[in-house]
Design goal:
Blueprint: H1 3-9, E1 14-19, E2 50-55, H2 61-64, H3 67-75, E3 78-81, E4 84-86, E5 92-97, H4 104-116, E6 120-125, H5 132-139, H6 144-153, E7 154-156, H7 191-196, H8 202-231, H9 249-269, H10 275-284, H11 293-300
Parallel strand pairs: 1-2, 1-6, 2-5, 6-7
Antiparallel strand pairs: 3-4, 4-5
């Protein structure tokens, strides 16, 4: 079967593609919602027509041992072909491809179909390899008009780069959507869009917190290394556009403290900054010339831990 031709001739409102999604247990009693990557529980909230496509060589008969037949029979699906199951009302169909998946071109064309037919597309990989860079690469190939559609209707990775492996807890992850059902595509946002998203969704706030804590860690590390280098008259390790390569230690520290303060203000908006952390900042933003540089850095890392 040519999957692209089949999907083009038999359109659906909502497509979920699973990659490396073979069941980890063959005992249906153990195959709970937490580990069900075949029909994830987030699909229960989708009321439109659904197509599910799975790619994994371990779905082949040599490895499957009859699990798929038992699973779909228990779910009330009818078997149409060796690897195709549908619900009695044909609203949901599941297509199993017992092959390894490694085709960017296929995903590009599936995105094209989503745009053409005004449908939604979710791609989830369970191999431990995040889809963020792949998604951004494909996204960059489309026009501005099509990018706007993709941002609202195409989602690569329901865990948003946090938990995309074979042990993903499927009850803990689901696409984040606005009241209109559009996806919050966090991985495609620039920093201003991230800031504008504070308070929109609890999961979004978790991702924003993680983003700015990571940024705080990077700013502290790179600029404090530069500060230490500058105090010894050595070349800077991390070139910066914010100060010259021959900058005075004071200039570097002023920039570092300004950036740290800005991020702390953002984290405070997210209600994740403690009184102790603010006290650390207030003390160590003024005593850096009087304390061992490595102790200073160690104490300041508590701002994001």
């Amino acid at each position: 079967m040519n999957i692209l031709e089949y999907c083009n001739a038999n359109t659906r409102d909502y497509t979920y593609i699973g990659i490396g999604s073979k069941n980890r247990y063959s005992d249906l009693d153990k195959f709970t919602d937490e580990i069900d990557q075949i029909l994830p529980c987030f699909l229960e909230k989708v009321t439109s027509t659904i197509r599910v496509i799975h790619f994994d060589p371990f779905f082949a008969p040599d490895y499957d041992n009859g699990f798929l037949n038992m699973y779909f029979e228990a779910k009330g699906f009818d078997k149409v072909d060796q690897y195709l199951w549908v619900t009695p009302d044909h609203r949901i169909e599941v297509l199993i491809i017992p092959q390894k998946f490694d085709e960017d071109d296929f995903l590009y064309k599936m995105i094209e179909q989503a745009i053409k037919y005004s449908s939604k597309l979710i791609v989830q990989k369970y191999t431990g390899q995040p889809l963020v860079s792949q998604f951004k690469g494909l996204y960059g190939l489309f026009s501005k008009e099509h990018k706007d559609y993709i941002r609202n209707n195409v989602l690569f990775d329901i865990t948003y780069g946090t938990d995309c492996h074979c042990m993903t807890n499927m009850k803990e992850h689901a696409p984040m959507t606005d009241p209109s059902g559009n996806f919050y595509n966090f991985v495609l946002y620039d920093e201003q869009e991230i800031l504008n998203s504070i308070g929109l969704h609890p999961k979004m706030d978790e991702l924003i917190t993680k983003y700015f804590r990571s940024k705080l860690s990077e700013i502290l590390n790179e600029n404090h290394v530069n500060y230490r280098k500058a105090t010894r008259g050595e070349p800077l390790m991390f070139p910066s556009t914010k100060y010259p390569s021959h900058a005075l230690p004071q200039t570097i520290m002023n920039y570092l403290l300004s950036e740290v303060k800005s991020i702390l203000n953002i984290l405070d908006r997210l209600n994740v900054v403690t009184d102790q952390q603010m006290q650390i900042y207030n003390i160590y933003s003024t005593n850096y010339m009087e304390i061992d540089m490595y102790k200073w850095y160690s104490e300041m890392t508590k701002l994001y831990k």
